[in-house]
Design brief:
Elements lengths: L2 E8 L3 H18 L4 E5 L4 H7 L7 H8 L2 E6 L9 H13 L4 E7 L17 E7 L9 E4 L7 E4 L5 H18 L3 E6 L5 H16 L5 E6 H10 L6 E4 L1 H14 L7 E5 L5 E5 L16 H13 L3 H16 L13 H9 L3
Parallel strand pairs: 1-2, 1-3, 3-12, 5-10, 8-9, 8-10
Antiparallel strand pairs: 4-5, 4-11, 6-7, 11-12
Bound molecules: 3-isopropylmalic acid and manganese (II) ion.
């Protein structure tokens, strides 16, 4: 049976980098007969501005019932300042498809890309699991007396036992499966007492089921410092939605910049969404300057999720070789455009 993939290039530089990712996927699909079947969807800011619809009715169910994965570029357009379509589509999929695992590996692929003095590939190799369906992202709260001197805004940070437990368990399971030695849970329970209490208790409860894996806690402010000062101390990190959003941008910088970072929004065993971490970068749109590696490594991550481990590994090897040869875009020290940097990877596949 074929594996069905929905391709959503989105806004800004999304289409350019996804085009490169698609060349890689098409090549592998042909040569290795992976049986991948792609359907393109043009949901983006243009469509939204033209029709007022971010995602047509029934589309979410179609994705849920008829696809194995979604390969997404980026969302965000200055003409849609409230990011309505992005919220509907990206956050919509995260919530409605219950993609509770945000999987963001931080792996330095070449010593030359390290932004840290004296830290190399063996130091910068960790995986961050960000809870992806709760926390400050649930949109609970409101504004009272808006526009008056007395106005009040609240924004709730929601944690449920089930939600916290499943992401923490996923982090431990991953550590066990991949031979990682420790899991660090990060929060801010010295201030956020209630949510923190739930996270800490759940972390301790789950950790007891994995006696062979070390576990430790770190306040998120200290985490940002230690990720820079001593990244080698981390194997697997698990944290909530908002803290995870912040520390994964730091993580992307550790691997050479936003252009390098891949991510998966996963509901294990169900349709899951894969996107590079970088945004739509409107000012670089159509200029053939964006780094396609984030999108290519995202394609590899998707292949791995779908069970094509060897094909995924081949992609990573080709990327590592292209970087080693200096055949990359300018953001990581090369001199090529997006398309040529893509060719440099393709010819090594
Ligand atoms: C990310 C992005 C999104 C987030 C935005 C675009 C809503 O920053 O995927 O990290 O905050 O989750
Ligand atoms: Mn982010």
């Amino acid at each position: 049976m074929n594996t069905r993939i929905a391709v959503v290039p989105g806004d800004g530089i999304g289409p350019e980098v996804i085009a490169v990712g698609m060349q890689v996927l098409d090549r592998l699909n042909e040569e290795r007969r992976l049986g991948l079947e792609f359907t393109h969807f043009g949901w983006n800011a243009d469509e939204y501005l033209r029709t007022g619809i971010s995602m047509p009715p029934g589309a979410m169910d179609d994705i849920r019932n008829h696809y194995d994965a979604v390969y997404l570029g980026a969302f965000g357009d200055p003409r849609v300042p409230d990011m309505k379509h992005a919220a509907d589509i990206l956050l919509g999929m995260r919530f409605q498809l219950d993609l509770y695992v945000n999987y963001r590996p931080v792996k330095l692929l070449n010593a030359g890309l390290s932004p840290l003095k004296n830290k190399g590939p063996k130091d910068i190799d960790m995986v961050i699991f960000r809870e992806n369906t709760e926390g400050a992202y649930v949109g609970m709260g409101g504004i009272f007396k808006k526009g008056t001197p007395d106005e009040i805004a609240t924004q709730e940070d929601v944690s449920t036992r089930k939600g916290v437990e499943r992401i923490i368990r996923h982090a431990f399971e991953y550590a066990k499966r991949t031979g990682r030695k420790s899991v660090c849970m990060s929060d801010k329970n010295n201030v956020m007492r209630f949510g923190g209490d739930l996270w800490v208790r759940t972390f301790e409860d789950v950790a007891r089921e994995y006696p062979d894996i070390e576990h430790f806690h770190m306040f998120v402010d200290a985490l940002t410092m230690q990720m820079v000062r001593a990244p080698e101390m981390f194997d697997v990190i698990v944290t909530n939605n908002m803290f995870g959003d912040i520390v994964t941008d730091l993580g992307a910088a550790l691997q050479g910049g936003l252009g390098m970072a891949a991510s998966g929004n996963i509901n294990p065993g169900k349709v899951s969404l894969f996107e590079p971490i970088h945004g739509s970068a409107p000012k670089y749109t159509g200029k053939d300057v964006s780094n396609p590696i984030g999108a290519v490594l995202t394609a590899a991550m998707m292949l791995e999720y779908l069970g094509f481990d060897e094909a995924a590994a081949a992609v990573e090897t080709a990327v590592v070789e292209a970087i080693a040869a200096g055949e990359t875009t300018k953001d990581i020290g090369g001199s090529l455009g997006t398309k040529a940097a893509g060719q440099a990877i393709l010819k090594r596949l």
